[in-house]
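lol forgot to send this yesterday, sorry. struct tokens for the thing we talked abt
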């Protein structure tokens, strides 16, 4: 039976065939002359059948396990819809970095699926997690998702895609958008230094800080804005919340007081707010001991010179993104607001209009959850974080210049 590492590399080989098809599709769409080169680079005709030979897999596995020198892991953590992709894209472009997108997404590997959104203390035994980060830091991981933000299973043809015209158009549309993302991000993949963005690592920062050479920034955004964006993007919080509830170390450790509240019946808004609290309160509790930096999304917009400089310094980066890069919405921006086909950047500059799009009951539910977690540095009544309250509650280290 092949090892977990062998299965990972087998998937990588198949993904490279898919990359060939992405290039081919883009060349057809744009009228470029890439098709001939693609056929030489990738054996596309074997995309759905070819697999790495046992000898190849053994060799690749040996390389993976023997090359364990680890460079600095630059990590941007935060909840989903907090602006982590926006900051990653801006800093990676400005500093010539290789963006590494969500390496703990369950689709990337069995190891990632096992540790995604898991609470880990510094003394946790994770023999297979460190090699994953080694591979990420040394560009040994080649999953389409991490490099190009493309889900390989969605690219492969299935019978369901051909049962209706709508499904077929949706599948073809995903192919075309994936090809565009590939062309947009491909030029960054040759850079040696990487910048990791991960919304599934918030609860393991203590372990990351202890076992890796890591520079960590945690991006926090108003929970009201995050919940509103997640509602608009049709996020379902219950599976993730169930995973947190099943994490005994988490429920008996930092969330012991909130555990009874979390086990109660929560509506969707309350559940989304609760996941935000879990993913942000735990890093806040650890900020004094792990040395990571807390950066508030709203402060990046209000005080860009100071806050972008602080974020870059945390990640050991020299160049700040210019105003144009700062103004660009991320590739994952939720249903961007447009006017005459042009994105209205005032949406970002005014923190969005989440407080107008949530009704009074939603706002009250979010505040009730914040109160249950004793979160005082964000309130529904205010659009901005109260940095002073945060410093008083969790310590000034990591939040003040």
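and heres what i got for the seq, position by position
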């Amino acid at each position: 039976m092949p090892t977990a590492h062998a299965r990972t590399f087998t998937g990588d080989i198949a993904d490279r065939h898919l990359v060939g098809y992405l290039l081919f599709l883009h060349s057809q769409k744009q009228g470029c002359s890439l098709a001939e080169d693609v056929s030489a680079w990738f054996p596309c005709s074997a995309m759905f059948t070819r697999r790495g030979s046992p000898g190849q897999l053994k060799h690749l596995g040996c390389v993976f396990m023997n090359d364990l020198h680890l460079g600095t892991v630059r990590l941007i953590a935060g909840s989903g819809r907090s602006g982590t992709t926006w900051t990653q894209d801006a800093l990676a472009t400005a500093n010539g970095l290789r963006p590494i997108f969500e390496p703990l997404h369950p689709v990337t590997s069995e190891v990632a699926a096992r540790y995604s959104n898991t609470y880990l203390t510094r003394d946790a035994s994770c023999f297979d997690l460190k090699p994953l980060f080694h591979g990420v830091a040394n560009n040994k991981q080649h999953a389409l998702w991490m490099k190009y933000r493309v889900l390989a299973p969605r690219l492969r043809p299935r019978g369901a895609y051909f049962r209706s015209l709508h499904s077929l158009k949706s599948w073809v549309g995903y192919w075309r958008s994936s090809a565009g993302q590939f062309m947009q991000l491909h030029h960054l993949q040759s850079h040696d230094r990487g910048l990791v963005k991960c919304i599934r690592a918030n609860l393991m920062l203590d372990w990351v800080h202890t076992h890796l050479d890591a520079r960590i920034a945690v991006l926090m955004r108003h929970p009201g804005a995050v919940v509103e964006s997640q509602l608009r993007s049709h996020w379902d919080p219950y599976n993730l919340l169930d995973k947190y509830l099943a994490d005994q170390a988490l429920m008996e450790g930092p969330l012991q007081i909130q555990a009874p509240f979390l086990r109660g019946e929560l509506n969707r808004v309350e559940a989304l707010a609760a996941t935000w609290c879990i993913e942000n309160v735990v890093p806040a509790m650890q900020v004094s001991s792990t040395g990571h930096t807390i950066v508030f999304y709203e402060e990046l917009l209000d005080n860009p010179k100071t806050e972008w400089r602080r974020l870059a310094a945390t990640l050991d980066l020299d160049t700040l993104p210019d105003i144009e890069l700062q103004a660009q919405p991320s590739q994952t921006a939720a249903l961007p607001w447009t006017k005459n086909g042009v994105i209205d950047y005032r949406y970002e500059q005014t923190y969005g209009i989440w407080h107008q799009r949530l009704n009074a009951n939603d706002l009250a539910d979010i505040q009730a959850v914040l109160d249950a977690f004793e979160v005082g540095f964000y309130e529904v009544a205010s659009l901005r974080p109260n940095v002073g309250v945060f410093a008083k509650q969790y310590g000034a280290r990591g939040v003040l210049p």
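The radius of gyration is 22 Å. anyway ping me if u want another try
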